[in-house]
Amino acid sequence: MIHLQQFLSVEQQLEVLQACREVGKRSPLFVPRMKNGSNFSCQMTNCGEVGWISDEQGYRYSTIHPTTGKPFTPMPEIIKNLAKSLAAQHANDAGFIPQTCLINYYENGSKLGLHQDNSEPNKTAPIISISLGDDAIFLVGGNKRSDKTREILLKSGDVIILAGESRMIYHGIKKIIPSTSSLLKAGGRLNLTIRQVY
Hints:
Largest sheet: 6 strands, antiparallel
Strand content: 25-35%
């Protein structure tokens, strides 16, 4: 696992944030549901060839936004190019193809339980994660849910790359620390997770 602390400048963060806002106009945030019907505590949307969705039918990728019924917005070039560069320079993967970007919005009080990113047929390509906005406490475990976890503070502009042996580790968001960034006018945190699905 690679943690690039405050890798993005404020200017770059604002550019990525604006790209996310443009995505949200066509593919708005929605609240996903777990298999048991309960809601996630964060909102999300996607851009790219496909998007990750969750409901009573389970976790999966779809080309269609679950509330608009329309295809997900294409991935903005700034996000695509950033992910390619990060994969090539820091994960030794010059052939990385960014096929989807999951955008999670965490308000104060939101969290995300320990999980593996295992919905992708391609489980060897690195996962690129970009933090924008308020600080978050990131939980990192091992390849089994029962493995011991440790906490990492993620700040706005930080990048996490899960590659190689860390690709399938359990991870989650323990909590958001409010008022630690002024990037998002309403507060909270955006996380972009870019993956090569196939």
